[in-house]
Design goal:
This protein has 372 residues and is mainly alpha-helical. The longest helix is centred in the middle third of the chain and has 27 residues. The protein is globular and about 65 Å long. The C terminus is likely disordered. Helix content is 69%, strand content 0%. It has 16 helices and no strands. The chain has one domain.
């Protein structure tokens, strides 16, 4: 079963990285040609999938529900957007070295914090480090204070709202509500593959077992001699860095980034992608991000008034009828139909998979690690 899953993932990676760009390279009018618009649309969806993987690490595997990942996504997107606007230079609408929105706001000199973004290496570092450092500072004080559960979710939601309000201010010199192909798509697809492998290596490592144990019973992990706060801080920072990378890949493909992507509603939508695909599975968030956003693109084109109703209905259906999401439910069905009553391997690590260790009073992940 593991080999079957491996081949399936390899086939999906080849489809995204090789096949779609190759079909886009076909001459115009070819029956199988993928249009530039479609490729760009899928590139945006793949950026969302990277973000969803990060959320799955913190929520699906660690049990920490963050409603503020739009902030980290926006930080990465703004870092890339600032660099691209500076690269445009005098080719802008007003022919000024300053970005257009600064000309509108009668700014006469480039703000000091913009100047480092002329540098490509600095921009690439900022894309990863700014969200990661922000998450480290926020997570350090939050987890150190043992804030968890719904209280952590509320605090991250407040973080998203306050950041959205701050970025909307023109005095920040970030554009306010104005905001800032094939090779870019391939880069996004490769980054998605790299993010998937990174998350997979973390979840299958001893640290990953501790994360699962924290999700199952944080108190037992604490009594076993581990520091849940340190592990949660680590995975929160990694998740924020992935969100920053996703934002940086999103900005040039869409051509604009505004505070609308930082607020509370986008952060909640990101959670829905993971829930629909199946949290705690890695593959599920990718499927959820691609599927939900493709459905959004389809419905908003033909039936724009129905999208919010469909999105709400999807979330309610997942909570009530398919709590494991699409991928999690499919894996359970395959396990029941498989040989020996479902002994096949899975990419997920759900709480119900191990009961013996809980009965013995030891957290799931910790008992597995000690057995080694």
């Amino acid at each position: 079963m593991r080999s079957l899953e491996g081949w399936g993932l390899l086939g999906l990676a080849l489809l995204l990285v090789v096949v779609l760009p190759a079909l886009n390279a076909l001459p115009a009018g070819a029956p199988l040609r993928v249009s530039d618009f479609t490729l760009n649309l899928f590139g945006k969806f793949l950026a969302y999938a990277i973000l969803a993987l990060g959320i799955d690490l913190i929520w699906g595997y660690t049990g920490v529900l963050s409603l503020g990942h739009g902030v980290f996504f926006g930080l990465g997107a703004y870092a890339m957007g600032m660099h691209l606007m500076l690269e445009i230079g005098t080719r802008s609408v007003y022919g000024n070295v300053l970005p257009d929105f600064m000309v509108w706001n009668r700014v006469t000199e480039l703000p000091l914090f913009w100047k480092p973004f002329y540098s490509v290496p600095f921009t690439l570092l900022a894309i990863v480090l700014v969200p990661a450092l922000f998450a480290f500072v926020f997570g350090y004080f939050t987890f150190r204070s043992r804030i968890r559960g719904v209280y952590f979710s509320i605090i991250t939601q407040a973080l998203a709202l306050s950041t959205w309000l701050m970025f909307n201010r023109n005095a920040m010199n970030l554009g306010g509500t104005n905001g800032t192909q094939r090779g870019l798509y391939v880069a996004t697809a490769l980054c998605l593959c790299g993010a998937f492998l990174l998350c997979r290596s973390i979840t299958r490592s001893p640290a990953g077992r501790v994360l699962i144990a924290i999700r199952d019973s944080e108190t037992r992990v604490l009594f076993s001699g581990y520091s849940p706060a340190a592990f949660k801080l680590f995975v929160f920072v990694v998740s924020a860095a992935l969100a920053g990378v996703a934002g940086a890949l999103y900005a040039p493909q869409v051509g604009i980034i505004t505070p609308a992507k930082i607020g509370v509603l986008p952060s909640i939508e990101m959670i829905i992608w993971v829930a629909v695909g199946g949290r705690g599975t890695l593959l599920g968030p990718v499927v959820g991000a691609l599927g939900v956003n493709w459905l959004q693109s389809l419905l908003t084109t033909h039936y724009p008034d129905l999208w919010l109703l469909v999105l709400g209905g999807l979330f309610v259906a997942v909570v009530l009828f398919f709590p494991d999401g699409v991928v999690g439910t499919a894996q359970k069905l395959l396990a029941r139909l498989g040989p020996r009553g479902g002994a096949g391997a899975r990419l997920s690590a759900r709480p119900e998979e191990v009961k013996g260790s809980k009965e013995a009073g030891t957290p799931t992940g910790v008992s597995h690690m000690e057995a080694r």
